[in-house]
What we know:
By secondary structure, the protein is mainly alpha-helical. It has a domain at 75-316. The chain contains 23 helices and no strands. The longest helix is centred in the middle third of the chain and has 30 residues, at 187-216. The chain is globular. The chain starts with 11 loop residues before the first helix and ends in a 12-residue tail after the last helix. Keywords: Antiport, Cell membrane, Membrane, Transmembrane, Transmembrane helix, Transport.
Amino acid sequence: MDVSDEVRDPTIGEVLLVLVAFLVVVFSFVSIYDLPIQLALFISWFLVIALGVRLGYSYEELEEGLMDGIREGMGAILILITVGTLIGTWIAGGVIATLIYYGLAIIHPSIFLLATLIITSLTSLATGTSWGSAGTSGIAMMGVGAGFGYPMPLVAGAVLSGVYFGDKLSPLSDSTNFTASMSNVKVIEHVRSMLTLIVPAWVISAILYTIVGLMMDVGTAPEEMARVEEYMEVMSTHFSINPIMLIPAAVVIILLVMRKPPVASIAFGALLGVVWAAVFQGIGFFEALGTAYDGFVLDTGVEFIDDLLSRGGIYEMLPSIAVIMFGLGFGGLLEKVGGLRVIVDKISHLFKNPGRTAIGSIVVGIMGNMFGSAMYVSVIVPPKIMQGSYDKLNLKRTVLSRNTEVGGTLTSAMVPWSDNGIFMSTLLGVSVFEYIPYMWMAFIAMILAVLYGYTGLFMWKTDEETR
Length: 467
């Protein structure tokens, strides 16, 4: 008899042992021994493989599960690669320098955090992509915030709050459409459900960012204003700064709004960056083209500007790509052996009321990010696992889809080895653990979701005719 015919499901003890070992390996490698997380994730493959062999799977079957996990995340890897090229060529072409220059000139420092939230929200709402928004307006606002002297983790929190806000309300968003389809609801109905949660969370976040910005009083002291003027002068000396430099950014945003493929749209924007570098910045075409892989290096003698604008390229993204691939492989292996399914089967009896069900959806979404290492896992798992609990409580599937978004997509950037965590931390130049405390909109949305569950607010029943 073939070995694969004799497989069994893992016990809850076996799954928990593997997951605890996984967390111990990752934590000890990163926090104690200062070893790369890529190595920790690679070693963790063999923890699940060992379990799979014990359950009766052949190595070939487990390797197939590993590859399936990686294949599912190739879209994220391709976007990460193209964003790397975009950053390198846009710096060379003066696009990012111009965005930062105008931001420093136009935005008042005291309302900068609010402006960041609004600008990134509008960009994401129009384009329907949190990654594309972070790679365009998000990068620019990080530069402006650094120029004003704001703590970078705080600015990153405002950027992430904005890009995920727009992404969750845009019918153009892939993740929004995917979540709706997984919960078996129409995307417009899902967006209407999200409005009741994400808008209040955004408003509260906007108030908090405004208060903090006013309290910090950053960039308004004479010495700080002089420093900002120095930064602007240095950038105008080393780059041609004028509105024409903004055309590549406008083109990419328009293409994304038109629902053109993100990889192709971003890659075209990177090509425009090469052209702009050659035409407007006096850089040789092939030298500019090289920044798509190696990134751009600036030497002005001003350390802050040099650090800010010496980055980008595919090469800079390679460590992040490795983390995503190893993480996706781990998630694929875990799915192959049925790890998450076994855990949720054991805890499903706990979801006896809407409040507990909301908490369960959020926890399951976070588990999807932690052990699946990808946002797509975090929006697949909750509907599959939790829909029975919602049906027993006569709750509409729009409540399920809304809570799936809260637990899955809004927390996806909080896991250091998930696709969103790696992408955002690499792009914004801030570690996940540094910016997590400032992702206020995500935390507020989770609190509201649980509050709605226990109070019955916006918890629509299946026998209701209207929403």
